[in-house]
Each structure stands twice: as structure tokens, then as C-alpha cells.
Amino acid sequence: MSTYLAKERRVAIEAVQTACTITTRVFESLVTGDTLTKKDKSPVTIGDFSAQAAVNYILGQHFSDSIVGEEDAQDLRVEEGAGMRDQIVALVNDALSARKHIDAPLSADAVLAAIDRGCDTGGTGKRFWALDPIDGTKGFLRGGQYAVCLALVVDGEVELGVMGCPNLPLDKSQPKPADGEIRGQTQGLGVVFVAVKGQGAVQLPLGDGGEETPVHMRDATSFSDAVFCESVEAGHSSLDTNARIAEILGMSKERSVRMDSQAKYASIARGDGDVYLRLPVGDGSYREKIWDHAAGALLVAEAGGRVSDIAGRALDFGRGRTLAANRGVIACQEALHAELARAVAAALTEEGRGALLE
């Protein structure tokens, strides 16, 4: 195995595994059957903060790199946040202690400082980590798919990506559990995906000591039997436009899988599906966050795919905390990508949204 980024790879895997122990514990202990009904986001907030603190702390023990993360600790420093802060501090200390990263508990200030290490603005000409501690918050709350995503960006290019998917089957031939089936039924679930630029992509069990196996996109010469991986939430992508693109490409309307988070990238990378579209909604003014795509984009590229924006341009991770130079994301096998981009352009033009391609 190449020595390039060997230490970073090892530490990132450990950080993601540690974070996944936290998110799993939060789901099992704090998410109830009526969490979504009551629109109670406190469990995912606690999980987000706790996972970010643990990852940032572990990275900080080994590297001086800055971190672009989703959360900051401002709301936990006020009196109203004391109860949540105490839960987060306990979760972080339990996880770090269990995995032997600390000999004595961290103080609340130390945990909050670890969270705030994620406040960097990113950019080019530097090396930094991009972290999404719980990608797919509604999937997490539903007991569906979510991911802990960590990537190393060097001068605007993603060089390393690690993604933990606690609810995804290790064996891709096994059916994915439906939302709500996760609780108490974790046998065979839990995968970590790893990609280093130029070294291919692998998966390994989420628990310690598992064997790494290569992952590859499915061989395909046309879209006739291709499968879409789409977002569950309609607000995250133009699902009607996706359907029109499928029609243009001659894809079956019945062959689509919907799931939350960057687990979609992981699924197409190992051949569960073939096409991922995250098309602009409305006027296209929204810009994707870099932590929502960095790890997944590299994983697909190293598994034999191509990821771009809707106009076919490479994603630029050196413009700050967002993909400011890009609109939307499309991904599929390398050989079919140009055809996919043409279909996307045709569908958007039909809708009168062709200007988004400029």
C-alpha cells in the first residue's frame, strides 16, 4: 500500500468510527417513535455536536490542519444550552475514553473548543479537513440512512475521503432496512468507505478489525438498466426533473432508490445504483456545502465514476465553505457521464432553466 497520506487515512478512519459509536448511541437512547412527529431535532443536534467534537479532537491530536465543519458551539455556551451541553460532554468523554483517546475526562470548555475547531472558512492554497458529523439528519431521525463524512482537501482538491454509514448493509446484496427497522436490528449493518486519490476505493466493516475490500461502480454500457439514487426529501433536488432525465435516457421509471445523505455516493460507488443527481431547486441560487459532497465525490471517482456539476464542470472545493463555482451535482460511470450531462442540459432547457448551466 502507498505511504501517501497513510497516517491521515488511519486517523480519519478512527475518527469516523468513533463518531459513529456516538451517533448510534444517540439514536438508540434519545430518538423515540414520535421524534419526527413532534419535530424534535434535539437528538440530531446532540449527535451533530458530539460527533464533531470527537472527530475534531482526534484530528487535533495528530495534525495542525484547520477544519471546515457544520457546527459551532455558540448556542452551547449560554445558560439555555447547559442541559444539552452536559449531554454532549458526557457522550464525547465516554466515546473518547472507550477508544483510549483520553486518560481523563475533557472539561466542558475543552469539548466546546473542539467543536469550534470546525469554524474555518476553507479556500485554496491550504490544507484542511471538511466534516459533516451527521449527513442526512432526517434519515438519522427516521432510523434510515445517514453518514458521518470526513475529507481532506489540499489546494482545492479532495485527496482523502472517509465515510461511515452505520445503517447500510456491509453486504451490498442484502436489502437495505426500511426506515424504522434499524432499532435493535443492527446485525450485518455498518460500513466505512475509504478513498485516497489515485489509490482506488475500499469498504470495511464499521466495527474494529474488519478486512478491507475494493469497491467499484457497476459495469454499464447504457442507461437502459441503470438505477437512480435519489434524495428522499423533494426539497433537496428536483425529483420531477430527474424523472424527465430518466425518460430522455431511456431509464425505467421503476428503477430508482431513495435514501438520505452521502450514502447515495457510497451506494453507486459499490454498484448498488448507477446515477446520482442533485439538481438545483428553483432559481439555483443555493450553493452546495463542501462537506456535503467532498468525501462522496472522491469515493465515486476512485470507484470508476465521474462527478461534476450540472454543466459537466469539476467540483471546486477551494472556494470556501460552499461549492461557489458550481451548481448542482451529477454522478455516474465515467463512460456514460457525457451522455448524462447532455440529458440534464436538455431537461433543464425544456423547463426554461437552461441559464443554470452557464
UniProtKB/TrEMBL annotation:
Its EC number is 3.1.3.7. The keyword Secreted does not apply. One of its GO terms (molecular function) is 3'(2'),5'-bisphosphate nucleotidase activity. Pfam families: Inositol_P. Mg(2+) binds at E70, D132, I134, D135, D292. Keywords: Hydrolase, Magnesium, Metal-binding. It comes from the Eukaryota. It catalyses: adenosine 3',5'-bisphosphate + H2O = AMP + phosphate; adenosine 2',5'-bisphosphate + H2O = AMP + phosphate; 3'-phosphoadenylyl sulfate + H2O = adenosine 5'-phosphosulfate + phosphate. InterPro entries: DPNP, Inositol_monoP_metal-BS, Inositol_monoP_superfamily, Inositol_monophosphatase-like, Inositol_monophosphatase_CS. One of its GO terms (biological process) is sulfate assimilation. It is an enzyme of class 3 (hydrolase). Its cofactor is Mg(2+). Belongs to the inositol monophosphatase superfamily. NCBIfam families: bisphos_HAL2. This is 3'(2'),5'-bisphosphate nucleotidase.
